[in-house]
Structure formats: structure tokens, C-alpha cells
Amino acid sequence: MPAGGPTGGHVLQRALGDQRRRVGGASLLAMAHQACEALVPVVIGLTIDEAVGTGSAGALLRWLLVLAALFLVLSTCYRISARFAEGAGESAAHRIRQDLAARVLDPRGGADTGRLPGALAAVATGDARRVGSVASALPYALSALTGLAVSAVALLRTSVPLGLLVLLGVPPLLWVGHLISRPLERRSEAEQEHAAHASGVAADLVAGLRVLKGIGAEGAAVARYRETSRSSLASALRAANSRAWHDGAILALTGVFIAVIGLFGAHLAMRGTISVGELVAAVGLAQYLLGPFQLLTYVNGEFAQARASADRIAEVLASPPAVAAGTTPLPSPVAGRLRLRGLTHGALRGLDLDVAPGSVVGVVARDPAAANDLLLCLGREREPDAGTVELDGVPLADLDPGEARRAVLVAHHDADLFEDSLLANVRAGADGDAPDVGPALAAAAADDVAEALPDGVDTVLAERGRSLSGGQRQRVALARALAADPPVLVVHDPTTAVDTVTEARIAVRLRELRRGRTTVLVTTSPALLAGTDVVVVLDGGRVTAEGSHPELVASHATYRSAVLA
Length: 565
Prior knowledge:
Layout: H1 8-18, H2 20-52, H3 57-104, H4 117-158, H5 160-207, H6 209-215, H7 218-270, H8 276-317, E1 338-345, E2 348-355, E3 360-365, H9 368-378, E4 386-391, E5 394-395, H10 401-407, E6 408-411, H11 422-427, H12 438-443, H13 446-452, H14 470-484, E7 488-492, H15 500-513, E8 518-522, H16 526-530, E9 534-539, E10 542-547, H17 549-555, H18 557-563
Parallel strand pairs: 3-8, 3-9, 6-7, 7-8
Antiparallel strand pairs: 1-2, 1-4, 4-5, 9-10
Helix pairs in contact: 1-3, 1-4, 1-8, 2-3, 2-4, 2-8, 3-4, 4-5, 4-8, 5-7, 5-8, 7-8, 17-18
């Protein structure tokens, strides 16, 4: 990649370069196919002149064999070239998706900055497919040029005026056809927009069906969808009418053009300038030439779309990392001592904090933004604006982000589950193929969740765990973080959707399971805070109070309002 990051041109070059052997093979075969296609009208004309016109059965058989050989070669070349071309396109798109996935999953981050997950998914699917299509389209472009060259030679050898008429008449015909297609393009785009809007409305109604029934708004919802559906139908009918007019107009123009060529060729034949067979060949080549020109129009459109998609892909690949890649090795073994000095980032203002190894520390932040910024810095997802975070005396900024996150695991409040079994979700962050996750399930009270499921821990969860309740999802996510058993575990509000009895049980079991391992609980839960060794209060981006949970409840009004309100 270039020093300044890849550009759209580099992405296109990479897509073609990686598949140059397939693209080259597909191009040669496609060129042979088009050359044979162009020769078919010529052979038919020769058959008429040398066999039909003379009544020679031997010549007829000979030219029929030549014609059969042409069809055999062109059909074989087409099948193989199409297979190579499509394979090249799919392989190029796959390689681009791999590059995008590697960039998005890079421990240094940064690819998602300013982009929604759906936007990244669209780049990795639609844009990658469009760029990959360049590898498929290039052989077709070369084959079309080959077909034009062979046709030009054949026509000019037959009759220079007739050849010039065909070669100079086809481009304006295609240009007029392009003008005719513009209304269809506009109406098709409107049709797609209305259809997408109708689908979106339907999806919203289905997702909120329970709420709509609860408030008795089914009638209004049905009326809204009916209006949207009618608008979509009207747009589809307008597009269908436009398509019918477009196809009829193109067919009429083509017919007029072929008729002009036929009349002019007939005039030349009547004057004895060309033979009947040459006339048939010229008309056949005129009809054939429409194909290569249309193919070039298609390839041009593919390249235009691919260039725009390549620019979007290049923007993702060239995204600056959110954090630097350190080279200092991780301390071994990791004791788990955290030391924050002058930490400034977002809502944090010169934060100083010491976490002893093996301790359980509670952090109460009045400002949710301060809690979030603290998690981002501890997880090396963002570089602090100022100050340092140290692990056993080594600044996190000097460590590789991946190594740092294996030592300091930050479990965010909004952690998602995967569409897999409950057991696979819990094992996702653990080392080894078959770790014993029983203690983690019990500590998070997720064993109760498994017992309530039809297949226990082997029950497959829906996308993002939506088949579970909010509290059940939180417990499974907490079990996943505990099963990873990192030297330092930072957990953010893991029990906000859990009932108080279960929360109290989790607080006791979590402390037991994490005994001897550093644990930081960023939460306002009294049950969890009661089980900590010390609690610190963040206000204004700094530590304003420190002590045990009972001490702070008794002496600190801000703490009481944040925890007991």
C-alpha cells in the first residue's frame, strides 16, 4: 500500500492484479468467442455465394462444417471464459472483503470512526461486489473490441461504403438509445425508492406490532401501510409503462437501421457491386455489431460504479488507527496493578487513580460520559488526550493493543451476543477449545438462564440474543467476560436489567470467582458496590471521594444520590 494509504485506483489495481491470470485467460477465450461470432455472418454469406448460388453439394457440406466448427469453438470459449470471468470477480470481491475485515478487526481500531455498522457492512458487501465486477467485466470489454475489429475488417473487405455506413451508424444509434433510456432510469430509481420505503414501513410495523396492539393503533398502522403500498404500486406501474415504451422505441430504431442497411446493400447488389452472399453477411454483421457496442456500454457503467465503490473502500482501508501499535512486551506474570495519572480524555479531567492488584474496586460516575471515556482509555480503544494509564508500571500506550486487551478486558454495558449456542457465546472470550465455563455461568447466574432454555447451554440464541430477556442477556454477557478470566476485568453496569435477588447473588459469587484477580466495577448498583474493597466517586472528571460503600453512604451526599436514588 502507498504511504498515504490506498486510493480508489489502488483498490481497482489490486482487484485486477490479484486475478490477472484468471482475467487474462478469460479475456483470450472471450476474444476468441467474439471473433467467431463476428465470422458467423461472413461464413453464411460465403455459403450462399459458393454453395447455394452454384448448387454445389460439396461446397455446401464444407461450409456447413466450417459453420459447425465456429459454433463449437464460440460456445466452448463462452462457457469457459464466463466461468473464468465470474470466478475472477468473485475471488476479487472476496479478497477485498478479507482486506476490509482485517482493517475493521485491526486491534488499533479506527475503521469504525464516524461510520455506522450498517455502512461498513454495505461497503464490505455491495461495494466489494462492484469492485470485484471489474475483474469480470474487463474480459467482456476486450472481447467487444475484438468483435468490432473483426467486423470492421470483414465489412470493409466486402464494401467500403457499406462498411462505413455500419461502423459510423451504430454509435449514434446507441447514443439515441441512451437518451431514450433516461426516463426509464429515473422512474426505475423512483420505483426502487418507493419499494424500499414500503418495505421499511412494513418492517417497522412488524417490529412494533406488540406496542401497536397495546395502544390500539392497528387501524392507523394499516392505513399508513396501505397508503405507502399504493404509492409504491403507482410508481411500479409508471416504471413498467416507461420500460414498455423504451423497449418498443429501441426495437423500432434498430429495425429502421437494419432496413437502411438492407436497402443500401440491396442497391449495391443490384448494381453488381456486391454479391447476394456479401449482402447477407453485411446485414448480419450490422445486427451483430449492436451486441459489442451494448457490451461496451455495460462495461462502462460497471467501471463507473466500481470507481465510486473503490473510493469508499479506500476510505475505510486508509482510516487512521485510533491507537498506536506499541512494541513493549506485556509484563509476565501480570499482577494487575492499575495506575492512572493526569488522565484527560473527553469528560475526564486529570484523573488520578490507583487500583491495587487483586482488589475489587467500584467506580461511581455521576456523568455517564465520564464512565464511557474511562472504559475507552482502559480498553485502549482511544488514546487519552493527556496523562497515562499504566499496567504493572508499563504504560498501556507502549503495549500492543491486542496484548493490552487480553490483560485488561473491558466488558461494556451494551455487549452483544452472537447467533450461536449459549455455551459458544460464553466460551467466545476464553482461551482453549473446551474451557470449564461452569464457574463463570454460576457466578453470573447464567446457569439459571440455561436451565430455562429447551436445550440448556446448547440452545441456539437468536441474533444479538434477542430470544432472551434483557436480564438474561446481561447475565450471559457477564458470564462470557468472567470465563475469559483476564488479569484485570473492567465491567460496566452488568446488572441493570436483573432483579435485586439475582443481583445480590451475582455480587457475592463474582467476588468469590475473581478472588486474587483485579476487578473494576463501573456501576451505581448498591449490591455490587457493597462487595467491593473500595469505591471511588468521579465528579467533574476527577476523583472527589474514596472509601468503602457504607462510609460513602453515610458521609457523601452526592454518592447517596447517585447510588440510592
